[in-house]
Design a protein that fits this description.
Blueprint: E1 2-3, E2 6-7, H1 10-20, E3 25-27, H2 30-34, E4 51-54, H3 58-71, E5 75-78, E6 95-98, E7 105-109, E8 114-117, H4 123-131, E9 135-136, H5 149-155, H6 162-165, E10 172-178, E11 184-186, H7 200-204, E12 213-220, E13 222-223, E14 229-235, H8 238-250, E15 257-262, H9 263-273, E16 283-289, H10 294-309, E17 312-317, H11 321-332, H12 334-339, E18 343-346, E19 349-350, H13 356-370, E20 373-379, E21 384-391, H14 398-415, H15 431-438, H16 440-453
Parallel strand pairs: 4-6, 5-6
Antiparallel strand pairs: 1-2, 3-4, 7-8, 8-12, 9-13, 10-11, 10-12, 14-16, 14-17, 15-16, 15-20, 18-21, 19-21, 20-21
Helix pairs in contact: 1-3, 8-10, 8-13, 13-14, 15-16
Flavin-adenine dinucleotide binds at residues 39-40, 76-84, 87-88, 99, 119, 141-143, 147-148, 150-152, 154-155, 157-159, 208-209, 213-214, 335, 423-424, 460, 463.
């Protein structure tokens, strides 16, 4: 990267950080930095960071931002690196700020039903800590055992229970962020209602580290719901499963989980977990209720009726909470199950719920057109599907085919009034599609915000915009 037009070497960047933050862990060895080149986005090429640094306080982050601004070095904030859009991938010669050492839960406030956390806290650790107090933090990306709250905020992560509880954005009350000029602001407090000024919290959530760097978050908790009742519904066609999703929504139901797996994904999950799922079914829905008492049974009965009306061939209830946990874990591992079969590239299209059958049909058509194996699973209750492209390992045509398939998938989603990314983000992987989806005027507004908040363009440049 450059300072006043001159490139800054990794050595010079490391030396500047070492001199001003002598106590902070810093990686300068190229082999160590290599581990921070990529996130989980399989088809990305990314740069080698010039330095990787692990702050332990907001003051450290402020100093790092000042150094980066002085040297005109781009900053990549990084949580656990599980992102699927290249948002935390390295920038050649840039400064990657990794938040794994800012991983404390600062407060669990029962009276106000909030938790105050540092960004490096792992989602599952927060869930476990609040569960021990009889409380519940809803956002649950399938990667919840490895991804961080900072990354969840960066991407506005979704997950399995968004259909009832919303995305990460819906569980955030306030952020402490470091701005590109090194100033520190708080966007809110513990107030449930607070409409003073612009909604900066919601502007920063999902901005993928391009507008500000999160150093603390005040998150909304709920009383822990009862253990879930879990049902699996199997269908002979993808379309019937899609119709069941639309039918459940039309019946006014909000199950805690409404997930879909297609035949290929069911097979992969079975190979890995041997749960006895019906491998001949074209699709399976996993439907869960966390309503209290008999209300849960009633909710599942009504969901069952919607599934039968759509043509479900088989309906199975989990025998107990342990079996339900196993099924949920298996769904969460769908991507890894597919990865056992080849090189996988995960996509993330979204459509209005009622168009799920159309999107499923489009995915089948696109897979056949390009002769690519696609395993589709995802958060069908949100209209958010993950078509996973599976290639034989080392297939030389994989890159070209991925590009062609992506183009058709995105266009199909947009034609159905949908989005090119439901929860993973534009990042650096889908840049050229932002304007196609949002239009030039909307992107101009986004650029104006970016320029106002980050005039030097040092915060995660080349991501989102
Ligand atoms: C198997 C698997 C399953 C997944 N399932 C889901 C799912 O169900 N739902 C879902 O939404 N995602 C899912 N993901 C994607 C990923 O886990 C999420 O996007 C997650 O939110 C990323 O968290 P992270 O800590 O790994 O963040 P990273 O990948 O490190 O970063 C993500 C983005 O946030 C920014 N960022 C990180 N920390 C900060 C900070 N402190 N301040 C400002 N910006 C910051 C980064 O710059 C980057 O743009 C899955 C990934 C995998 C591999």
């Amino acid at each position: 990267m450059t300072t006043h037009g001159r490139p800054i070497s990794a050595d010079a960047l490391g030396a500047a950080i070492g001199a001003r933050l002598p106590g902070v862990r810093l990686l300068t060895d190229p082999l160590d930095r290599e581990a921070y080149r990529l996130d989980e986005t399989a088809y990305l090429s990314a740069g080698l960071p010039g330095a990787v640094v692990f702050p332990t306080s907001t003051a450290d982050v402020v100093e790092l931002v000042r150094i980066a601004a002085e040297l005109r070095v781009p900053i990549v904030p990084r949580g656990a690196g599980t992102g699927l859009s290249g948002g935390a991938a390295g920038i050649e010669g840039g400064l990657t700020i990794a938040f794994s050492a800012m991983d404390r839960i600062l407060e669990i406030d029962r009276e106000n039903l909030v938790a105050v956390v540092q960004p490096g806290v792992i989602n599952a650790d927060l869930k476990a800590a609040v569960a021990a107090e009889g409380l519940f933090y809803p956002p649950d990306p399938a990667s919840y055992e490895s991804c961080s709250i900072g990354g969840n905020l960066g991407t506005n992560a979704g997950g399995l229970c968004c259909v009832k509880y919303g995305q990460t954005r819906d569980s955030v009350l306030s952020l402490e962020v470091v701005m590109a000029d090194g100033s520190v602001i708080r966007t809110g407090g513990k107030n449930v209602k607070d409409v003073a000024g612009y909604a900066l919290t919601h502007l920063f959530v999902g901005s993928q580290g391009t507008l500000a760097i999160t150093t603390e978050a005040t998150l909304r908790l709920r009383p822990a719901p009862p253990p879930r009742l879990t049902m699996l519904a199997f269908f002979a066609t993808l379309e019937a499963a899609g119709a069941a999703v639309a039918g459940i929504a039309a019946a006014g139901l909000t199950p805690a989980t409404l997930e879909l797996l297609d035949r290929f994904t069911i097979g992969a999950v079975e190979e890995m977990n041997n749960l006895g799922l019906d491998r001949t079914a074209a699709a399976m829905l996993m439907i869960e209720s966390d309503m209290p008492g008999v209300a849960a049974t009633e909710e599942l009965e009504r969901a069952e009726a919607a599934c039968r009306a759509a043509g479900a061939t088989d309906l199975v209830r989990a025998a107990d909470a342990q079996e339900a946990d196993l099924l949920r874990q298996a769904r969460r591992a769908a991507h890894y199950a597919l990865e056992r079969l080849g090189d996988v590239r995960m996509e993330d299209v979204g459509v209005p719920r009622a168009r799920v059958p159309d999107m499923l049909r489009a995915i089948e058509r696109i897979a056949a057109k390009h002769d690519v194996q696609i395993g589709t699973f995802g958060h069908a209750g949100d209209g958010n599907l993950h078509p996973d492209l599976v290639f034989e390992r080392g297939d030389p045509t994989a890159e070209a085919k991925t590009e062609a398939v992506k183009k058709d998938l995105y266009q199909a989603a947009l034609d159905l009034g949908g989005t090119v990314t439901g929860e993973h983000g534009i990042g650096s992987a889908r840049l050229e599609w932002l304007e196609v989806q949002r239009g030039a005027d909307a992107v101009r507004v986004m650029r104006a915000i970016k320029t106002a908040l980050d005039p030097l363009g040092i915060l995660n440049p080349g991501r989102v915009l």
